[in-house]
User: What shape does this take?
Amino acid sequence: MELDPLLLSRIQFAFVVCFHAIFPVFTIGLASFIAVLEALSFKTGNPLWQKLSKFWIQVFAVVFGMGVVSGIVMSFQFGTNWSNFSYATANFLGPVLSYEVVTAFFLEAAFLGVLLFGRDKVPQGVHLFAAIMVALGTFISSFWILSANSLMQTPDGLELRNGMYHVVSWADALFTASFAYRFVHMALASFLTAALVVAGVSAWFILQKREFATNRKALSIALWMLLILAPLQVVVGDFHGLNTLKHQPMKVAAMEGNWQTDTGVPLLLFAIPDQQAQTNHFEVKIPKLASYVLTHDWDGEVPGLNEVAPEMQPPVFIVFWSFRIMVAMGLLMVVFAIWGLLLRYKGKYQHSRSFLQGLRLMSLSPFIAVLAGWVVTESGRAPWLIYQQMTHAEGLTPSLTGGMALFTLIGYIVVYALVFSAGVYYLLKVFRGGIEKANRPHEQQEFERPKRPFSAAHASLEEGDN
Amino acid sequence: MEQPFDLTLIWAGIIAFGVMMYVLMDGFDLGQGILFPFAPDEHHRDVMMNSVAPVWDGNETWLVLGGAGLLAAFPLVYSVFLPALYIGVFLLLAGLIFRGVAFEFRFKAKTSKYLWNWAFAGGSTVAAFAQGAVVGAYIQGFETENFRYVGGALDWLTPFTVITGLGLVAGYALLGATWLIMKSEGEVQQWAYKLAPRLLLMVLVVFAIISVYTPFVDPYVKERWFSGFSAIWLLPVLALYCAYANFQSLAKRPGRHAVCRHHGFVSVYLPGFVSQQMALYGAAKLHPVRCRISL
Assistant: This one.
């Protein structure tokens, strides 16, 4: 079988970017959560907030460390596998990625040390300031990255001259038609991720009857966050979808599994899209609902995939099902938000075992939702790398062979599997150590001297909890 | 477009500065990894790793900045370089990842310490070799057509690039040893004192081979060295003088002046590096692929 460098490069990029995305999506939200805890501690002086903050800063340190390691690979992927794309968009992408390095990276790096190790060395106000700066740094970072991605989705402000894009308006190029939706959707996703992980971990501690009062506080905050953010995310997601319908109708057609442009289109709950036959099998549907959701009119017209040639369609099965997974996760979050509110009303959310067990599992849901969402938006853009300007095939490195791409794909999978299983294993140890270990006064050992992000966490790699 | 000043030159300067900072700064901490397997015991290794743990990732920021800056300022170089060095870049990244996580985990590990030792040593050595080979490949040039790389996956791997790769491994090891002389004391420092002159000798040998080899690999470099601009010969002479001075002071081992030692070795690199750059800048002027800027 002939190895296809295009397919392998796409799989490789999807693999490394998915692996990378898990970490920042969590740290962006967690950084803000820590800043809030520090602010509460500063304002009230209640030691409970500091206890919580100490624990979650340890978690942050480990996740941040892994995010940085996997991020380095990303910046080289553009050049190695997508050199034509890099060359064509360098006038935009080069400065944007450089700004990301200079503004966010340096801001985070400068204040991270103060946040992780400076609690007893700087005044409390300075420590709080560092927490806020780290949170701000993560946001600035996502601003540049999402701006670059939005340009690929809804290109604007560029002019093609001699095979190279030139920026004619930086304002248009940075703030393209889909940027605001994407940014808000992603920011909310980060907050939701932090809220659900905090909720899940706190629920687990409460089930074990550990540090009850402290963890109940954390759970309470997380549930309030969930209650506000989960429904809000549904609304924002809807707006984002309408924006996509306007600018990338084929992506929406794939999300809906809609092959023919039609009015009064049903919403499919289940289907097996068949790209070859250009139809769906085993449809389960609600009449006219897709038209209503997308056009806010029961008989509105929804574009179908038949508007473009089959080879210009996105991979329908992947987009269709990723979208459903994302929406299902979002709806589950709303269910848990309301369930939490009802239990709180009766004053027993911290005692319901089924609710707490459910929250434990739900701590995985935001990661599934975020990855599924990115698969929708990235695969849904196919075959375009820059929407309606450059295809994946055109952006690929011309000298790349299938063998080379396969070699690095396997290489990255092996490296990541080794490195990140160690990382996740260690993170679970930090979780097991919990608030008690994070706050236990201890003789500082040689290996705990502050020098690396992980030094902020005190667990040993192999030993059991002690 | 008319530019008020020569942006090409300014950016070439910025990137050259970034690369130089990277080589000097990350060089000594990669050097710790290269010397790791040769350390007599775990205590030595603890000291070695501790001495660079707080600073190594700051040093690597220069690499990230260099990469992003290259894309921003010289997209053509970027889009020829990375595809041509596809496998090399992968090895470099894999090496950096392994040693990066070794920094985090080695201090946490007890029974699995030896694994992280290997990750640190292997990762550092592979990364250093890959970087050296990249420089060699750059001097060697790439097969391009229409400003696109058209060569094969392993074109960069030649005897010449193997030599430059090994040369950089030796060079980083030397920087690592002199860093230890500067930063450590007692046993570890004595050990580093013993290593440094041998490594310096190795580096000089490799420098000599590369210097003789380069003009044959790249005719532009040859032209640069042997025609007109003769002041360039001062630089290798300066490098040789610095090497000599360093040999002298190493032999005396005056403990208090260890700081000068490290800086002394930096001084060997600087002229060597600048002379290469100047030779290559001349090449770049003639080589459109290497210095195209679009602003």
About this structure: The longest strand of chain B covers residues 144-145. The radius of gyration of chain B is 20 Å. Chain B touches chain A through 53 residues (CB under 8 Å). Confidence is low (pLDDT under 50) at residues 255-261, 273-295 of chain B.
